[in-house]
Each structure stands twice: as C-alpha cells, then as structure tokens.
What does this fold into?
Amino acid sequence: MPYRPAGQEMGTLDQYLQVMDSYGIRHALLAELDLFAQVQVEHDQLVTLQPMLVNSGARLLIDHCGRPAPGAGLDQPGFLALLDAFTLEACFWASEWPFLKAPQRIDMGPLIRQVERLLPDPRERARLWWETPRRWLGLANP
It folds into this structure.
C-alpha cells in the first residue's frame, strides 16, 4: 500500500505536491469536477503555495483564514497573501460547529460582533454570510 501522508505533514510546496501525487490528485481534475481543494496552511505557508493554487483553476477553500500567527498582527505575509487573493466575492463565513473537540463552550456572539465591526456595511455582511456561500455552494435563492 502506498504511503499516504496526513495533511498536517505538509509544510512546503514540495511536501504539498508529494501528498497530492500520493493520492493521485491533480488540481486540473478538481477543477474539471467542480470540486474544492481544501488547503490547511499556517503562518506564511500560503505565500509559497499561492501562485500554484490561484492558477490551478480549482475552487479553493483556505481553512481557518490560513491560520495566521495571532500575535504577529495583520501585516504577516501569509495573511496578506490571503487578502490579496480573495475578496468578499470569494470569501464566506463558516464555523467549526458543533465544536466537538472544544474544551469549553464556544460563544459565536463575540465573533459575529467582530465581523460587524470589520464590515459595518450590512450589504458586505450579506455577501460574506449569504450571497457568496450561496453562489459557491450552489444553493438556491429563497
């Protein structure tokens, strides 16, 4: 049986490509099948992967906003790469509900209020919370 590395073992572009090759996955196939490529990166890993991912043609899901380092502020290269590549037309809100591994109760209220502060225009929040996910996930209008 061929080696199947777990996603958390990927840290470089070469490792990422090795994992994709080991599963026989090509982004062109994902694009052809209209599937998402879900990418877990952290800190500045997205900087290296960004050109290949953006040019792949596959629909991309960058999990957890690219997992920036919380204490590094908003100017870290990985987070800026995410902002450069995606706008509200290609970004939507998701959660980890039902938070099965959380050691304590998770309150979504403060997170929602933070989004309201970051996006004070209700039309922008509607794009984030409904219009873009509806379009990307193929949901019908109510």
Q: What stands out?
A: The beta strands are 36-39, 59-62. The chain has six helices and two strands. The helical segments are 13-22, 27-32, 45-55, 77-85, 108-118, 122-137.
